[in-house]
Amino acid sequence: MSLLKKIIVGFLLIMAIFVAIGTVYGLQVYRQMEKAALDMHQPIEGREEAVVIENSEPMSLLLLGIANDAKRKTDYRANSIMVVTVHPENGRTTITSVPRDAYVEIVGMGYYDKINHAHSFGGTEMMVNTIESYLEIPIHHYLSINMDGLADLVDAIGGVTVDNQFAFTAENIDYPEGTLYLNGWEALQYTRMRKDDPEGDYGRQRRQREVTQIIAEHMISFSGVAQIPEFLSIIGDNGETDLTLNQMTRLFTQYQNALSEIELFQMVGEGFTGDGFKGEAGISYQEVSLEELNLTKERLQQDLQ
């Protein structure tokens, strides 16, 4: 599963468990969930709700991992971009990863650039509009988490043990090949590095999935239950969504059948270097073929019917 998906599904599982529990502890945690949801709630102005979760209609959710953290305070690029479709009637959920360097038209800017720049240019609204235009589907809701959230979650679970496939150095930290124990800051750099990875951004996504799987497994484990307030605080402090708490809990309870079967897809592009006419000179991009793009559009459109 991908970087944000496991964290979010774990978050929804936690909420669903405690919404259903009538104990005092459950009510206390529910109040903390409510506060976290309020902290995260950032609707996009001018967008009306196009799908009614209460009616269990097919829906889409844009998941974003934002680059900014305590060190990169002004970096608002979306370095993880995933489109989720959930179809409760068909019992099907899909997660499609979009290359962060995909060369697309940025809606509202009038020119082509890396798709992840849309978020730094115009925030969530421009990012959503660009994805909708590029994939020709509606985006019903969104959820974003910044990179400080990932580091804080790793520290909260006591660090992670990963299987590093090759030696590299990032932010003056050496990562030898083999089994490594990482704290939050070390895990963050481990998941961010891509320039020295033979697979580039696709290799980075693999490391992101590795770390996130460890986090998610702990979050929904028996020992993780005691840390629910801490997890909620971290997610609330580092995330944004237009979903309300009621919508999030209904998303899990009424779409549970579809969430149990999740298919993963990765849009793949071919790298090229801008020459000043197509892209900025000297900058690397990914160009998704028309065939790949059309297949993705068709699949997503069918998933939302």
From TrEMBL:
Stretches assigned to the Cell envelope-related transcriptional attenuator domain: 77-220
Xref: InterPro entries: LytR/CpsA/Psr_CW_biosynth, LytR_CpsA_psr
Coiled-coil regions, chain positions: none
NCBIfam families: lytR_cpsA_psr
PANTHER family: POLYISOPRENYL-TEICHOIC ACID--PEPTIDOGLYCAN TEICHOIC ACID TRANSFERASE TAGU
Family stated for the protein in its record: Belongs to the LytR/CpsA/Psr (LCP) family.
Protein name: Cell envelope-related transcriptional attenuator domain-containing protein
Organism for this UniProt entry: Candidatus Enterococcus testudinis
